[in-house]
Specification:
The protein has about 180 residues and is of the alpha+beta class. It is built from five helices and ten strands; from the N terminus they run E-H-E-H-E-E-E-E-H-E-E-E-H-E-H. Strands 1, 2, 3, 4, 5, 6, 7, 8, 9 and 10 form a ten-stranded antiparallel β-sheet that branches. The chain is globular, with a radius of gyration of 17 Å.
């Protein structure tokens, strides 16, 4: 049986500050804040996204590290992603490879988010505030800790979050389908 090392929740409350407060009370340290712009290149009918694949260009700006404003340069990364079951595979591409592979793809899906990262021991908690999509909370463990136990220990109110297996692009597609 595979041990789950990551869990995701849709944040159902507008009170992100209360969730952050709960995380900080559990002795997690806010390590960094990022502004991220993801651009996915797809066909006119979203064929890649519907098949849990995609070509993504990510531009990341570091806003702060340990509450100190950052002057780190903006980074660009190019990847091809494919999700099989619960595993996401990423193939890193050069900018030239990316341009060649995405030539002719007319749909450019842009997803902007602010990411807040909290760390304690072998646990990373991420809050993504995603424009036009919603907010996600993710708990990932790299060592012996178990994500569900970490979540339970935080003592968050049950009506603040709802468990999900969907990633950001899947949530974006669900929202897009809901718009006539």
């Amino acid at each position: 049986m595979e041990i789950e090392k990551e869990i995701k929740f849709i944040i159902k409350t507008d009170r992100i500050d209360e969730i952050v407060g709960t995380i900080l009370k559990a002795n997690f340290e806010e390590t960094s804040v990022f502004k991220i712009m993801d651009t996915y290149f797809d066909t006119s009918d979203f064929a890649f996204l519907k098949n849990l694949q995609g070509f993504r260009k990510r531009v990341t700006e570091v806003i702060s590290v340990r509450n100190i404003p950052s002057d780190a340069p903006t980074q660009e990364k190019f990847v091809y992603k494919k999700k099989i079951g619960e595993t996401v595979y990423e193939e890193k591409l050069t900018e030239i490879q990316f341009i060649k592979k995405t030539k002719g793809l007319e749909n450019h899906i842009m997803i902007e988010k602010n990411r807040f990262v909290f760390i304690k021991d072998d646990v990373e908690i991420v809050i993504d505030v995603i424009c036009g999509v919603g907010n996600l909370l993710e708990i990932e463990c790299s060592g012996e800790s178990m994500p569900q136990q970490v979540f339970n220990s935080l003592g968050m109110k049950q009506d603040w979050v709802e468990r999900t297996r969907l990633g950001v692009t899947e949530l974006w597609l669900e929202k897009k389908r809901a718009i006539p």
